[in-house]
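Supplementary notes for students who missed Thursday's class. We covered one full example, reproduced here. Read the sequence, then the structure, then the short commentary at the end.
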Amino acid sequence: MKQLISLMAIIPAFLEICLYRVASKPEEVNLPQIQAASISTIKYNPTVEAIAKPLTVRLLGENIAGSGVIISRKGTEYFVLTCAHVLDSNQENKLAVLTVDGKEYSAQKDTRFNFRELDLAIVKFSTNHEYQVAVVNVNWNLSLGEQVYVAGFPNYEKKAINLVPTIDLGIKPYNLTKGKVIHLLNLSLERGYKIGMSNEIEIGMSGGPVLNQNGELVGIIGRAKYAFGGFDAYRFSDGSQPSEELLDELVGASWAIPITKLNQQDGFSEIVKTNINNFGVGSREESSSGLFHLK
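Structure (token representation):
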């Protein structure tokens, strides 16, 4: 089993290396103004589909291409939640955010927010344009078998027997997948991954939103099935490793970090406060720890 997982891990690694060569984009270059279009053929909840598309953004930079979700706004500044590993190769901290209308904005990682061991980061960009902000429900508890939706931008698309990079296609590769929760771990995997889902996730969708049937943000996707890293990708947060029997189940799921894990993160609580104060999303109460929680 370990040999099979190692072999499966080679494929996404090879694709990432190939895409790095085409992902570098000078700041002055404008991407094509192409309207978003879903490439999946499954039936969606039309309400979730309408909610997901305006929230989901594409992140491009030197050697990186990933996804993110608009989580808050303060004045002309927008804050995007994504996976930290999406930004790891971007040493100069120069990014472009592509929004639902095809516009491109200069962006950078906001280092004020520290998510510690979690595979998460905040990116910010500025504009006078109005964009939808996610409804964050940090108290939402998912259940096994519950339907969930994942949005993002695959870095390649299949054409016949070839995989064609989508870096130059702007927001056209937008994809929304439907699946179910198949694992809810008591002890999360390393970097906070706890929600296992049946959704098919492609390279480039990391950092995209996981939404429930009401269109509420409940997680951030970060690992596809048969994740890069092989056996080590399924190590638990306490350093222990699953049995081979359990590993057989874990590798067949895509994995997300639940928003509930962010409830005790100082940076995220500040983002949530901004979200509520600016848009009146949900209701709020202050806990004994001084953090605000969405209800």
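Commentary. The helical segments are 2-23, 46-55, 84-87, 244-250, 266-279. The first strand starts at residue 56 and ends at 61. If anything here is unclear, bring it to office hours.
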